[in-house]
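Researcher: Here's a chain I'd like modeled. Treat it as a single chain, no partners, no ligands.
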Amino acid sequence: MSVTTQNGASFASPSIIGDATPGDYFALLKPRVMSLVMWTALAGLLCAPTPVNPIVGFAALLAIAVGAGAAGALNMWWDADIDALMARTRLRPVPDGRVAPGEARAFGVTLALLAVVTLAVTTNLVAAGLLAFTIFFYVVVYTMWLKRRTPMNIVIGGAAGALPPVVGYAAASGGVGIGILSLFAVIFFWTPPHFWALALVKSGDYARAGVPMLPNVKGAARTRTEILVYSLILAPIGLTPWLTGLGGPLYAVAAAFGGIAMVVMAARVYRVRDGAAANRTAMQMFGFSIVYLFTLVATLIAERGAVAVVHAIG
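Model: Modeled as a single isolated chain. Structure tokens:
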């Protein structure tokens, strides 16, 4: 049996109710993205001026992770038609026919409501409202509106990926401070060079699916320039959490050297433009950008976690 999505694409659907396995539903959550969300949200929790009860903190992280997973499921429901056309995504549960589109939609909506209500009950309404806005922004603003209409989809849509530490901070403190907004800025400006490096390599996939990623609309040369420009902006912005007092000296060192390395990698992507070497350099940039962000967040967690332990012992 085939299913036609709201976007007009047809593909196989499960022939028997219940064919989908728990692993298929787990894949709908985009677990790798969900783990990154938990990581940055943990940094937000620990960076808040108010210490959080460990049980409350765990509940908050779980709710934020589930909210991210819900957004991922709704993204896969809406994007099933273009996912079916891309080698990178065609084996996802909906386009591969393991989960029906309606089931993915219901799964995502249920989890989103559960996550927001749980966060409201266990922490506060500010955090719950921010989580609801994050899910809305990713699903409606980015997935349904920006992704298929503008090559700036990643730039604007990057706000959704930058909000989880702000949600974590609000869960612990009940508000938002300038320090956590500096971490938001780091992730926001990190997102374009991170994804555009991958888009340079996967531009054929995006062209088949009709997604207007920057390399397909403005060309590879313009994309390489934008990667370098955003990396040059990111390098000093990476230091702002230290300047606002969110991070300590260890963070400052990691941000300084990491920012320089990001610029060096971006310069290599800018220079190397032909054949397999260009793709290899772009993928190295993509991989290093993950290491860069992971290191900055890990440093914040280590510094703030050490302070929390000292206070607990004292």
